[in-house]
Prior knowledge:
The complex is a heterodimer.
Chain A (H helix, E strand, L loop, with lengths): L9 H14 L4 E7 H10 L9 E8 L1 H4 L2 H11 L4 E5 L13 H6 L3 E4 L5 H8 L4 E8 L4 H14 L4 E8 L1 H10 L7 E5 H7 L5 H7 L3 E4 L3 H16 L5 E3 L11 H10 E8 L3 E10 L8 H4 L15 H5 L31 H9 L8
Parallel strand pairs in A: 1-2, 1-7, 3-4, 3-5, 5-6, 7-8, 8-9
Antiparallel strand pairs in A: 6-11, 10-11
Helix pairs in contact in A: 1-11, 2-15, 7-12
Chain B lengths: L25 H15 L2 H4 L5 E4 L5 E9 L5 E2 L2 E2 H14 L4 E12 L4 H18 L2 E10 L7 E11 L15 E4 L5 H9 L17 H9 L4 E6 L4 H13 L2 E5 L7 H10 L12 E5 L4 H9 L8 E7 L6 E4 L5 E3 L13
Helix pairs in contact in B: 3-4, 3-6
Amino acid sequence: MKFIDEYRDAQAAGRLAQALARVATREWTLMEVCGGQTHSIVRFGLDELLPEGVTLVHGPGCPVCVTPVEFIDKALAIAARPEVVFCSFGDMLRVPGSAKDLFTVKAEGGDVRVLYSPLDVLALARRHPDKQVVFFGVGFETTAPATAMAVHQARREGLKNLSLLISHVLVPPALRAMLSSPLNKVQGFLAAGHVCTVMGFEEYEPIAREYRVPIVVTGFEPVDILQGVLMCVTQLEQGRHEVENQYARSVRRAGNQPAQELMRQVFRVVHRAWRGIGTIPESGLGLCEAYAEFDAERRFDVQGVTAQESPECRSGEVLTGVLKPFDCPAFGVTCSPDRPLGAPMVSSEGACAAYYRYRRRPAAAEA
Amino acid sequence: MDWNANCPVPLGRHERVLMAHGGGGRLMQQLIAAVFRPAFDNPLLETRHDGAALRLPQGGRLAFTTDSYVVRPLFFPGGDIGSLAVNGTVNDLAMCGARPLWLSCGFILEEGFEIAALQRVVESMRRAADAAGVVLVTGDTKVVERGKGDGLYVNTAGIGALEHERVIGPGSVRPGDRILVSGDLGRHGIAILAARESLGFETEIQSDCAPLAAPVLALLEAGVDVRCLRDLTRGGLGAALNEIARDSGHDVRVEEAAVPVREDVAGACEILGLDPLYVANEGRLVAFVAPEHGGRALEVLRRHEATAGAVEIGVVQESREGQVTLATRFGSLRLLDLPSGEQLPRIC
Lengths: 367, 348
C-alpha cells in the first residue's frame, strides 16, 4: 500500500529506535495525545522498541472516551423516541451511559444507525421527511468541520427535521489543564497529526513556551511515531521546548483555513465536561445562536439530564497519563470490553481497550 | 451469513438479543454457553466443531451441519445469497473432513419479493451445487408479511460421508503443528461492505465465496495428517484461531508478515478502520497439519483453484493458556484477541 508501507517499514523503525537509544541519556516521560497513536503504539508494540528510560503515557485524545456520561444519557433519551432516527459514528453507539448503551436502545426498537460521515445525515433527513433525524456529533477538531458542514448545508436547504447533539472538544485547553495539574509528569507531547491537519499548530506555540514543554506534531504510523519520539527526546536532551512538525506531509502551520472558517461560523467555544476529568473551561464547541434551531438538546428538551460517573472507573487518571490501564484495579476484573465501566475500555481509540485487546496479561484474563 | 458493520460490543448482561450476539465473537460464545449449550448438552455438541460427526448404528460415519444466511445485499460482487448458502454448508461439511453429498434448503420469503430475483438466487444455488458435487434433495418455503424479513433468508443443512476414521477438530491439535491459510483474507467482508450503498466507496474487490471440499478431500487422500480445519467466516482468521487455541488448550503463534492480504483489501480496511484478520471470508480455510506434512499440504492445496494461494502463517506452541499471539513486522509480540462483537468503523 503506497503511502502506508513506507511508514510501516521495520528497518526504518529499527534505525529510529537505534538513534533514539543514542540520543536519550536520562529518563523522559512523553504523552501521545491521540488515541489513534496509542492504538498504533500498542498494536505494533512500539513501546518495546524504546530505550528503557523513555516512557510513553497515553493522552485524552479519544473522542468517545471523553464524552461525558451525561451526554450519552441525553443521546439515549433522544434515540428512544419513536419519531427519531438517531445516527452517530460506530464507536459512540456502544459506550455505556448510566443504564444502557445506544445498541441496547436499538435492540429495544429505537432506530439507531451507524454513519461514516456526518454529511450522510443530510440524505437521511431528505429521505425521511416524516422523521426527526438526529446526529450525535462528537470528536476533536478533526471531526468538527464535517459536523459544521452538515449543519451549514441543513440550514441552506432549510431542512427542518434534522438536528445535532454536539459534544465536540478541543485539544489545546486539555493540554493546558494537564500541564497545570500537580499530578502532571509529562515532559513532552506528541500532538495529534489529524487535529493539526485542520487547526495547524500555531496555537500550540504559546503552550510550549509557557510550560516549557516540547510539542511535536506527529502522525500515526510506526515510523511517524518513532520519529516524533526521537524529535521530542532530542529537544528535551538539548533543553529546547519548541513546536516541531513531524507530520509535514499532512500538516501546515496555519492548518486548513476554509475548515476553520466554517467552524467559526457554526460553532462557539463553550465550557465542556470531560468524562472522568471534569469541566475544562473553554474546551468544547457548541452551536452558535445562528444555528440554535439545529440543537437537538433544545429540540428534544434534554438539557436538564444529569448523570453520575461510575466511581470504580478511573478513566480520568488513564486519560491524563497518571495511571496505566494495567495499574487500574478494575482492569480485566470488573471491566472488560464486554462489560465496560468506562469508555476507554470501549472505544477502538481507548487506551484500556488497546491494552486489553493486544496485551492482556494472563492473570487478568477473564473466562 | 451476515457480515454487519453496525453491531458492536454492548453492556454486560443483556435482556435482549443484540446484533453483536450474531457476530461470531465473544458475545456469541456467551450466548451459546448461557442459552444453547445447557439446553442441548450432549457429547456430540461438545466437540464444538462446524458440524457433527455421526456414527451410524450399522457402521459408517456421516457429517451433519446447518447454517442460515441473512446477507444484505442479496447480490454482491463475486456471489449472492444462493451461492453463499450452498458453499457455506458445503464448507462446514468439508471442515469435518467429509465428502458433501446432500443439502436441504429452507426459504423464508418476504411478501412482495420479486419472483425474478428468487429465480436468480435459485439458479445460482443450482450452479453452486453442481460445482460442489452436491444435490439439493429436500426443501421448505414460508412467506412472512412485508416488513418482517429482508426479502429473503435461506437455511441449508447438509449431510456428507466421512470416508476415514480421522478425528479432525481442535482436540487433535498438537504443539509443533503447522498452520496454513488457503489464500488471501478479507475479500468477502469488504465486497459486502462496498456493495452497501451507505458506504459510498467503489472497489473491484469480489467475494472469495467458493467450495472447499475438493482441496480438503485431496489433502486427506494425499495422506496429509490433518489435525484441524476451520473455514474463516464471521470473525475471520482471528476468531477461528482463538476458538481453536481455546478448545485445544495450546497457544498459537502467527507471523504477521506471512498472512496474505491483497493490497486493495488492506487499503479498504485502512480507510474503514477494520483489521483484515477479523474480516469475514466465504472461501478460505485455516488448516492445522502435522509438522512434517506442512510442505506436502501446501503442494496439494496449491493445485486447486480455490486454495491456490495457500501459505504457512504460523505454528502451534506448547502451553496451557490457549492464547493467540502475533509476531509483528517490528519484532514485537502481541495478543490477537477474540473479537468482542463485530468490527466497527472508527471515528477519525
